[in-house]
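Hi support team,

I've been running sequence recovery on a batch of backbones for a student project. Most finish fine, but this one hangs at about 90% for roughly twenty minutes before it completes. I'm not sure whether the input is malformed or the queue is just slow. I've pasted the structure tokens below so you can try to reproduce it. Let me know if you need the job ID as well.

Thanks,
M.K.
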């Protein structure tokens, strides 16, 4: 109980004892400057974020809308994680040129490979626009007015520039910030180590410390001759950044200041105890079960075929990643007795609210309302999640139907506009990529297992008109040549036929049920909860002004700081703060195929040729830190006291996967691949030292 109490205080009551929790808004970093300096930082707030001159922020990019990446040279050289570039690496790979298996290194600019659709986005400016957004708004129901205000703000902010803008709610609408963005459209693939480095440890080690993954890949931003974003053209030139990160070659030690600068996706620190308990008891276990089933099919097939290993590499990684995180998350939350901690925190909140008339009026009801709402309506969230698993993560032919749906539904309109042929061409082209990575037998097995589970979970007994074998033998959406035929011959009369297509019929019947019965109720639940959360958080801000407050992650640029350190995540367990190349070899010797190595790695290890990348005769591979991170922080730079690049964030330890709901400073650690190991791989393993020549190394 004593341990629980101290945690309770750290998550709820006292501020600044544990400075490590929290994802801070860069434009407000000044308020934390002295805390950060006390931890060893040498930079000023202006060095980190500035709108008047170049600052660290200008080297940070959102990569492909999900991950984070950073520029490390004058010529737009961009580093991110291997798993962030994985779908690009995969799409350039074939049995002849298997970059997944063997790695890839462009020898010069001409060999860098284009990636249609891939973007890199920089934040130009962050402005507090709360007042302007709420102008004339007095109730949470005035959604249209709010939207109009936001549209106007965006219009004003972007007028006369090539920037785009977004206004985001923070703290559930207690404040609003404008993000002005510059999005680059030509991002080329420069290099990657093989999976035996970039994905070393595979699923065995994913979300686990001690870790030895060289989780990095290399890209480059290109721009038009004016250095502004431009779509791909052979005339484009490497982008000249406002700032690029120098490389930290200093020796590392426990307690070194670390700062992570990136785009964390989402956290849910404020959910109510009832909600959290349903997540732990029902939602997560059911989602895990759905993925157990698809992974059982995919993993088996990948073991037996190199082609399937290429086709399903990226999909398997995506499915298994959240699957494993969720297992760790509910395990951690249970160990922590997180629901009881939430209840205690809720009681404290209530007590505080009742201590004063005006607080009592504003905040006295909100906790019980939040719990009552989730008790009544969580089922919609459950069914929503099941639909995501079934329709979006499960059988892939659903995806092909979705991409074809628009043409089917709006055929007459497109015909009138003369666009039909163009759309058909596009569909045929993208279906080539789809079927390149598709195996009907795998899809059918997944379909069978997940259908059974889905209908059981959502409590529907279906009389199935079409069996899986009819769908996979007859449907136009489960076979490349049937699909091509359907699309190329599509005309006014096809619609009737499509409706009878067994695959289409199954999908549209159940998808439509989900869309009409679940989605609106789920959104209503979310909206109602957000209104309560807005009040709840306002109460925290007002009644506990001395606590260190931070808004939940929402895919906007954030900063988190802490230090290089290990952890003691459970009774009797101690994790040191770094791993080395020797540990890679030891894992290899264990014989688990997730730890396979190429002979070259063994030779290099034997030669101990670590050059200037070593410290005390060792080559550090990964280190851990007490930085509060989440999904989306992958690829984020981990910066030292001077703002130099120490490594790339890529994971959290098993014991900290619960930090999206509850951060425990004793056990939550982020995992970083050391930049010195990255450089060693580029230099010694890949002989691509021309890339290192572009960088600025700082001792
Ligand atoms: N767990 C890390 C993240 O959430 C890395 C995932 C990639 N690795 C893997 N084995 N799937 O993205
Ligand atoms: N690997 C995660 C990502 O892709 C980061 C790890 C985490 O969730 O903290 O963003």
């Amino acid at each position: 109980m004593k341990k629980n109490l101290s945690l309770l205080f750290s998550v709820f009551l006292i501020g600044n004892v544990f400075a490590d929790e929290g994802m801070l808004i860069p434009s407000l970093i000044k308020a934390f400057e002295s805390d950060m300096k006390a931890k060893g930082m040498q930079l000023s707030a202006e060095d980190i974020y500035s709108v008047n001159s170049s600052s660290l922020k200008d080297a940070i990019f959102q990569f492909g809308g999900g991950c984070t990446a950073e520029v490390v040279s004058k010529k737009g050289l961009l580093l991110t994680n291997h798993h962030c570039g994985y779908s690009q690496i995969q799409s350039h790979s074939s049995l002849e040129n298997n970059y997944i298996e063997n790695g890839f290194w462009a020898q010069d600019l001409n060999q860098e490979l284009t990636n249609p659709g891939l973007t890199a986005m920089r934040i130009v400016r962050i402005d507090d626009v709360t007042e302007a957004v709420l102008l004339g708004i007095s109730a949470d129901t005035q959604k249209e007015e709010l939207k109009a205000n936001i549209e106007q703000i965006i219009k004003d902010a972007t007028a006369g520039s090539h920037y785009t803008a977004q206004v985001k709610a923070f703290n559930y609408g207690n404040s609003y910030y404008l993000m002005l963005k510059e999005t680059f459209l030509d991002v080329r693939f420069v290099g990657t180590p093989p999976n035996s480095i970039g994905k070393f440890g595979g699923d065995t080690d994913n979300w686990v410390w001690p870790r030895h993954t060289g989780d990095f890949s290399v890209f480059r931003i290109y721009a038009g001759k004016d250095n502004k974003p431009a779509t791909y053209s052979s005339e484009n030139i490497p982008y000249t950044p406002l700032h690029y990160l120098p490389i930290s070659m200093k020796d590392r030690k426990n307690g070194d200041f670390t700062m992570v600068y990136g785009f964390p996706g989402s956290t849910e620190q404020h959910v109510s105890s009832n909600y959290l308990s349903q997540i732990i008891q029902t939602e997560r276990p059911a989602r895990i079960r759905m993925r157990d089933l698809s992974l059982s099919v995919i993993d088996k097939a990948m073991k037996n075929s190199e082609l399937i290993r290429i086709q399903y590499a990226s999909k398997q990684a995506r499915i298994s990643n959240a699957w494993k995180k969720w297992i760790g998350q509910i395990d951690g939350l249970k160990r922590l007795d997180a629901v009881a901690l939430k209840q205690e925190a809720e009681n404290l909140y209530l007590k505080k609210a009742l201590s004063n008339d005006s607080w009592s009026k504003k905040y006295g009801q909100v906790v019980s309302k939040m719990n009552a709402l989730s008790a009544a309506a969580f089922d919609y969230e459950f069914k929503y999640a099941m639909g995501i698993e079934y329709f979006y993560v499960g059988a892939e032919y659903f995806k092909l139907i979705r991409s074809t749906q628009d043409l089917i539904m709006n055929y007459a309109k497109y015909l009138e506009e003369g666009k039909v042929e163009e759309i058909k061409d596009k569909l045929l082209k993208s279906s080539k990529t789809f079927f390149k990575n598709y195996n009907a037998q795998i899809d059918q097995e997944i379909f069978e297992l997940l259908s059974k589970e889905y209908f059981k979970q959502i409590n529907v007994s279906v009389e199935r008109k079409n069996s899986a074998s009819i769908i996979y033998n007859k449907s136009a959406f489960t076979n490349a040549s049937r699909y091509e035929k359907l699309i190329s011959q599509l005309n006014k009369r096809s619609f009737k036929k499509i409706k009878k297509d067994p695959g289409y019929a199954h999908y549209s019947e159940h998808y439509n049920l989900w869309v009409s019965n679940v989605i609106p109720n789920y959104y209503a639940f979310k909206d109602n909860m957000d209104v309560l959360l807005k009040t709840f958080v306002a109460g925290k801000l007002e009644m506990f002004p001395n606590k260190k407050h931070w808004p939940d992650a929402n895919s906007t640029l954030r900063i988190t700081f802490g230090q290089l350190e290990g952890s003691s995540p459970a009774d009797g367990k101690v994790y040191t703060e770094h791993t080395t190349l020797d540990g890679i070899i030891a894992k290899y010797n264990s014989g688990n195929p997730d730890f396979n190595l190429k002979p070259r790695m063994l030779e290099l290890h034997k030669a101990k040729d670590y050059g200037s990348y070593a410290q005390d005769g060792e080559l550090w591979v990964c280190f851990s830190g007490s930085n509060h991170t989440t999904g989306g922080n992958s690829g984020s730079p981990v910066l030292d006291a001077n703002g130099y690049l120490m490594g790339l964030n890529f994971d959290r330890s098993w014991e900290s996967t619960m930090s999206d709901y509850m951060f425990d400073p004793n056990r939550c650690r982020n995992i970083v691949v050391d930049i010195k190991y990255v450089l060693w791989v580029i230099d010694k393993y890949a002989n691509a030292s021309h890339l290192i020549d572009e960088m600025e190394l700082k001792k």
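--
Follow-up from support: It reproduced on our side and the slowdown came from queue contention, not your input. Residues 83, 199, 202-203, 206-207, 317, 320-321, 631, 634, 650-651 surround arginine (ligand 1) (CB under 6 Å). No action needed from you.
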